[in-house]
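FAQ: What does the model actually see?

It sees only this:
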Amino acid sequence: MQRATSLERRVDAIAHRVLLGAPANGIRAGLVEFAVFVLKQAWACIFGAALLLVIVAARLWYPDDAALARNDALTIAAVLIQVAMLVFRLESGRELWVIVLFHVTGTVMELFKTDVGSWAYAAEGFLRIGGVPLFSGFMYAAVGSYMVRVYRLFDLGFARYPRRWMTAVLAAAIYLNFFAHHWWWDARWVLLAAVVVLWLPTVMHARVWRRTLRLPLLAVFAGVAVFIYLAENIGTWAGAWAYPDQAEVWQPVSSSKLSSWFLLMIISVVLVAWVYPPQVPAALLRDPSDGVPIDARAAEGEQTGRA
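And it is asked to produce this:
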């Protein structure tokens, strides 16, 4: 497991001992691989899952007349979750900087979006900037935490990953459009088309246990966006924030938000890629069997954006 924390190395060693006698073929082998895949995904989602659990618990049990405002309680809980992630070696210091960058990027967007009325938070508590409670930035940090953790838990490798400078330009354009479309033409469909053109050839290699999955990266982006959208529905139901059409009675978040989350995924991927440069799978460096006729030196240049 690449770049694992000390705790994760111990967990990985225990898991290897437990799975050592697992069958290599047949239905049972497939079930083992599936179980490992689910457990790794759950481990990668631990920050976001803990934060979502706190939000739901606050909706169900936090007293309305408490001396501490619910939004402030959520902010304190989010800080404690982040501290626990570091204390218990669930995240490294290097990853924390990525997560802080997600936090800042998301908070800036929150300040703008709440000001123009795209969504709103309850006007309560002291731990906020304007109308934005500080826990909101941790929701973006949860996405960043998942991205960096899933990268190393599955030893991700990428065939035909685009040049990083090109992805950075596109990510910057996507981020700018989240602001500019309020005054100018909404370029999201052009940006979506650019994402497809740029990442369509890319195949992600994800090692589960004995097997390595090969998945079109665009399909992975779409799948993660759907899961974030489902989490958003839970968050708005729990009253963490509300869109204008949810002000009176809660209703599911508009499916149009899926495109927004898909584009946000691109920003997330690009931020992580600048800290953890995408690597060509080792098997392709030895034998480019999936039609990628590149040698090791050319691959390194392509994947790190130095070519």
